[in-house]
Write a structure and sequence with these properties.
InterPro entries: Glyco_trans_1, Glyco_trans_4-like_N. The protein has 14 helices and 12 strands. The chain is of the alpha/beta class. The strands form 2 sheets. Strands 2-1-3-4-5-6 form a 6-stranded parallel sheet, sandwiched between helices. The chain is globular, with a radius of gyration of 21 Å.
């Protein structure tokens, strides 16, 4: 089978949940015995120029008739014409990380044999938005690797945000909330690429300086592998102020370590956060774009030792039920087999 990927899938300067997902399922399918042929397509996705579109079209045209092709939605949701040209002879399966809710994506998904969403929330959105047949839209939530539990500090003052510094991730809201609790002890490490929107990063730095947060908020840039694991190991609470998330892989990465989560109630985040077996959420959810609500939740976390212990206990209890990557790959393999028939 063939996989069409963004050209930057392995760029350490721009790690993303979507690229990590793609890389893990490619490895999982190969481990399961599939012959995986990767086709990274250079380009500024999802805003490709003519050369990138021509490259994608040529790669698809070169594939043999009847080939099963898994395609990252970041690439193909904006190139419906290229998919439509090959839809009659290829078995196209589109992997939708983040719905675009536009006419181009509607055409691309209509041309596909099947689509795979990375959360139940995303599947419902695709069905509602595009009227796709329900049996053509599947769900394969991201897996997570097992990790040693983090003990955390008694005071819970080590805050961690893992997200690319881009407007939709809500760092401006996070900084405003942190400024509102500046009277309390805490430090916040922000891990994520700084190059996606340099002007936005400059605005965030000015906001932090103007709010008196210099030295308390660190913009550390991207971290992967052992460096990212070390950032989690040093954290008491994951804070995610996103304006939109289809799932939130960092949520389950934190929970795998028994770290509670404070996040916005958007998209698939509640699904990723889930509940402990006793029904307790292993974290707190607040409305998006609401610095006061986020600050209130931070103040509750920092000021209530009983709350911290309840959430930590729930996070530790949530760990065994988290999906692993082999399960994700098995689900995708079943979809690909179905598309081939």
């Amino acid at each position: 089978m063939h996989v069409v990927l963004p050209g930057d899938i392995d760029d350490p300067a721009t790690p993303s949940g979507g690229n990590h997902y793609d890389r893990r399922v490619c490895a999982g399918l190969a481990d399961a015995g599939w012959r995986v042929h990767e086709h990274p397509v250079p380009g500024d996705w999802p805003t490709p120029g003519p050369a990138a579109r021509a490259d994608l079209a040529a790669r698809l045209a070169a594939l043999p008739d009847g080939a099963v092709v898994l395609l990252d939605g970041l690439v193909v949701s904006v190139t419906p014409q290229e998919l439509e040209a090959q839809a009659d002879r290829l078995r196209l399966v589109v992997l939708v990380h983040m719905p675009r809710d536009d006419a181009a994506e509607a055409r691309a998904l209509a041309a596909a044999t099947a689509a795979v969403a990375t959360s139940e929330w995303t599947r419902r959105r695709l069905l509602d938005r595009y009227g796709l047949p329900a049996d053509r839209v599947h769900v394969a939530v991201p897996g997570v690797d097992p990790a040693p539990p983090v003990a955390g500090t008694a005071a819970g003052t080590a805050l961690l945000c893992v997200a690319a510094l881009a407007p939709h991730k809500g760092h401006d809201v996070l900084l405003a909330a942190l400024a509102a609790v500046a009277d309390l002890p805490w430090r916040c490490a922000c891990v994520g690429t700084l190059t996606r929107d340099p002007a936005h990063v400059r605005r965030l730095r000015r906001q932090a300086d103007g709010s008196g947060l210099t030295g308390r908020v660190e913009l550390l840039g991207p971290r992967t592998g052992p460096a990212l694991a070390a950032a989690y190991a040093a954290a008491d609470l994951l804070v995610l102020a996103s304006r939109g998330e289809t799932y939130g892989m960092v949520v389950t990465e934190a929970l795998a370590r028994g770290i509670p989560v404070l996040a916005t109630d958007v998209g698939g985040v509640p699904e990723a956060l889930g509940h402990a077996p006793d029904g307790v959420r292993p974290g707190l959810l607040v409305p998006p774009d609401d610095p006061a609500a986020l600050a209130g939740a931070l103040r509750a976390w920092l000021g209530d030792a009983g709350l911290r212990e309840r959430l930590r206990r729930a996070a530790r209890a949530r760990r065994p039920a988290l999906t692993d990557w082999s399960t994700t790959s098995t689900i995708l393999a079943a979809v690909l087999k179905g598309a081939a028939t």
